[in-house]
Amino acid sequence: MSDALHIIAIWTHILGIALWVGPQFFMAFAWVPASRQISDPVARLQAMKTVTRRFAYIGGIGLLLIFIAGMYLITSYRDYYHYDGGFFDIRFGVVFLTKMITLAVMLAVIGFHTFIVGPRLMGLMEARIQGKDVSDVAIHKARMQSMTYSILGLLLTLCIMVMGAMLNTVTFSLR
What we know:
By secondary structure, this protein is mostly helical. The protein has helices spanning 2-35, 41-81, 91-129, 136-167, 170-173. The radius of gyration is 20 Å and the shape is elongated. Helix 1 packs antiparallel against helix 4 (136-167) and helix 2 runs antiparallel to helix 3 (91-129).
């Protein structure tokens, strides 16, 4: 039963990661370049709002799956690997702590982008559509900030994935 639960938890964790990372790549390399082809600013803004909202739902579900499965995996690792030593006596503890700190930074970056930077960019684009005086410089600056936080979030996510692979490499992490 322990093996089955471990396999289900790892599968669920990987599914959550796919739901979190996949849309990030889609947004960065498919949607953003493709959306520039939409010449009608109202349609473009509406499409952007729809796509980002759906990304938030999918990514949120992914994070929830990551959290649930991760909690099981971290609370059961001692029994699963038959380990009785101290948490930081092996690489597992150090890598896990580093992974959690990186996760906290990534969540802060993504949260800042989701709740501050992204809405600011959308607001500027909407204000321009409504005929308000919004400079190209302001929109460009907001786009660059959005791109910077998106790329940083993706890079942090990829670093977290590397650390996850390290944790699951028993000959490395349990030394």
